[in-house]
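Researcher: I'd like a structural prediction for the single chain below. Treat it as a standalone chain; there are no partners to consider.
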Amino acid sequence: MTGEAKVLQPAGWPRPKGYSNGISASGRMIFTAGVIGWNENEILVSHRLDHQFGQALRNITAILKEGGAGPEHIVRLTVYVTDIQEYLTSRDELAPIWKSVVGEHYPAMALVEVKRLVEHSAKVEIEATAVVPK
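Model: Treating it as a single chain, here is the predicted structure.
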């Protein structure tokens, strides 16, 4: 966490794994659209969840870079998946991908299973909110 952002961890609560319960931040806000795991030519990089997840995170960091931010400025993510069980069984593959793109930064997150995404073959879509300190 950088600048004026603070992880909100109530006393006595167990520390969550892979996310934070809450974050307070002040500064300039950046919001991304729902981002999927396709490349700059709008072609999905793979039909595998882990590959799409990694590409979606890299796409988000590219968007943030355009706004003068990095993954360390992300305060909230909403992750939409088409198969929650596939996500849960893929966590061992997703963790190193997360760390290679985002690092040891864990924003507040929500994970939601949806029937399908607009891009029919997409397995994951991620929305991000970042706050860049003043």
